[in-house]
Amino acid sequence: MAQRLAALPLRALVWLLGGLPLRWLHALGALVGRSRRGRVWHIVDTNLALCFPSLPAQARAALRQEVLAESGRSMFEVFRIWSRPRRALGWIRQVHGAELLAQARAQGRGVLLLAPHLGAWELLNLHLAGTGPGSVLYRPPGSAALEQVLLRARGALGMGQIRADRNAPRSVIRALAAGGLVGILPDQQPKVGEGVFAPFFGVPALTMTLAPRLAQRTVTLLAWARRLPGSAGFDIHIHAAPAAIADPDPVVAATAMNAAIEALVRQAPEQYAWTYKRFSWAPPGAPPRYGPLTRSARHRGGD
């Protein structure tokens, strides 16, 4: 009860802003995103320098501004997605590859859907809820109140939630064995010992092994929701995963998964979540990727 009460002000804010038209939400989001400086700015700058080293400085600066603007749009469109999910579904213009998901579900042995931090993944969650039984794996935020809002919003249309804790793998396997769909963010950096290093944009990145292990026993797809220009809405894109993602060698499988994600990101690099420290874990002996300006205030004193 205490957590529900604590979440009330946040839910009220989400509801209030969620009533704005998409073009307003995107305009406000872009304004807020482009004004961000400090830690987030330096994380984006570092990520782009790592992943696009041959891009001229001026072009990289322009991409950085678009990344910040898109991060703001993503943040503000969530207010409608979380507060008025059925109305938010009206933003979807086309679904490319819908037949792949229908065919995968028809096999009855579960569907593993990999949805990277690209485009509007919260809107993708709503769309998937309407295609049949499913669950999404989520990492709980630091705020209990925010977690309450998140669970309520993501589950509004029937999508189940699996908390990323020690019991998560068992819960995921049960959901897949029951013939349901399970959505995972495959580019979420795992803990040390729960992943392997595999190239992502040519940079060794600690990559989860859970998704490739699951891919060995079920149908695997990749999907993302592309934000269309001029706040015209969104297109859903669903793709078959490469066969190598189920390779028994974890490095081979992780490399194939990262290559598939990279191919999607290159279609709309400004819509990827470069605000995330994807490369914070470096291979043994390699120098740190991020400097002191990318640390949060509480971690500025040390490594």
Keywords:
seven-stranded mixed sheet; 303 residues; alpha/beta; single chain; disordered C terminus; two-stranded antiparallel ribbon
How does this structure look, described?
- The chain is an alpha/beta fold and 303 residues long.
- It has one domain.
- 45% of the residues lie in helices and 17% in strands.
- The protein has eleven helices and nine strands.
- A seven-stranded mixed β-sheet has the order 1-9-8-2-5-3-4, sandwiched between helices.
- Strand 3, helix 8 and strand 4 form a beta-alpha-beta unit.
- Helix 1 crosses helix 4, helix 1 crosses helix 8 and helix 3 packs across helix 4.
- It is globular and about 50 Å long.
- The N and C termini lie far apart (38 Å).
- The C terminus is likely disordered.
